[in-house]
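ESCALATION

Customer reports they have been waiting on this structure for their group meeting. Please prioritize. Original submission:
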Amino acid sequence: MEAANLSVASTGVALRLGPEAFSSSPNPSAVVGSTPGGAAPPGREPPFSVFSVLVVTLLALLIAATFLWNLLVLVTILRVRAFHRVPHNLVASTAVSDALVAALVMPLSLASELSAGRRWRLGRSLCHVWISFDVMCCTASIWNVAAIALDRYWTITRHLQYTLRARRRASVLMIALTWALSALIALAPLLFGWGEAYDARLQRCQVSQEPSYAVFSTCGAFYLPLGVVLFVYWKIYKAAKFRFGRRCRAVLPLPSAVQGKEAPQEAEMACKARRPAAAFPPSRASWREQKEKRAAVMVGILIGVFVLCWIPFFLAELIGPLCACSLPPIWKSVFLWLGYSNSFFNPLIYTAFNKNYNNAFKNLFTKQR
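Update from on-call: job pushed to the front of the queue and completed.
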């Protein structure tokens, strides 16, 4: 029994100790923390290796950068009147959820990573608060991405019916549903007794491992919005491709000799070949098409980063409780922080494809000088 406990403890501190944690040395001192006096006795490794210090530094920088960048987006939206409308309220809702992840969730997660065996030493009440905010803010961030994708899709495919008033109503409804659903998923274990987050005997704080809750939470927090964003981007791609082909047929009619199955291919080749020669002044339609193209590219990158960041974590969260198996703690930590990093990438993607944000940032810092 003692050997098994020692094995679990050595695996739990892998992230804290770095590569030395995987040493095959049978000496228990290789995985024991520092002495009460703070100095490591002779023959023992120091409590923090260079690798672990580097990892902790990078995670701390990620936390600070995520919070400051999302805060900058919020300040810009509040100060610039032109941003006091849709779709910037959807961006603001995403920035709020991502800033809360950086301010309330990631620091406590880092503190848990630094403890021996990833033990939770802050009590049951704070554990429930942390887990609730973790699930709620991350779920809200994910659903906000789906809401932005839906807004872009309706803007591209229904730009005549999807007026400013309709967009405002739809965005307010999506934001309300996003936060209500996120709160329901986060508070369900506390409200309905759906598993326990805190284990006092093992000093462990984690999301409820009840299999039924694992299915409910992962589907509601990730798999359902994942299906929404993938379907939306597929529809955006089809709409953009259809509009491109219709424009080519209108501008460059094919000769009568081209018939049958080769007609669409010939039309696309002719359009691509003669596009540089068409030096017409930009019209309102072409300006709208360029704007829609940028929106489609932004949504594509946003969805791609979102999937890459979160799918490893949610696969592990769904499979683990169902098969009563568990990943090594080091991989759990990697998947968790990869998901957290999505809150850092979201504001970068929004601002990179919007010149108004770049100009607002420049004006903001110029005025401060």
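Sent to customer with the following note: Residues 1-46, 256-264, 266-270, 272-282 have pLDDT under 50 and may be disordered.
Escalation resolved.
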